[in-house]
Amino acid sequence: MIRHRFRIWESISKEWLAMIGLTIIIIVLFAAIFSNFLTPKDPMGQDLRKRLIPPFWSKEGSFDHLLGTDHLGRDILSRIIVGARMSMFVAFTSSFIGMFIGVSLGLMCGYYLGILDNVIMRIIDVQLAFPVILLVIAMIAAMGQGLINLILALGITSWIRYARIVRGETLSVKNRDFILAIQALGANEFRILTFHVLPNVTPSIIVMLTFELARVIISEAALSFLGLGVPLDIPSWGGMLSEGRNYLATSWWLSTFPGVTIVITVLGINIFGDWLRDFMEPRTYRR
Question: Theoretical Cys-Cys bridge with 155: which of 1, 45, 52, 94, CB 3.0 to 4.6 Å?
Answer without folding.
Answer: 94
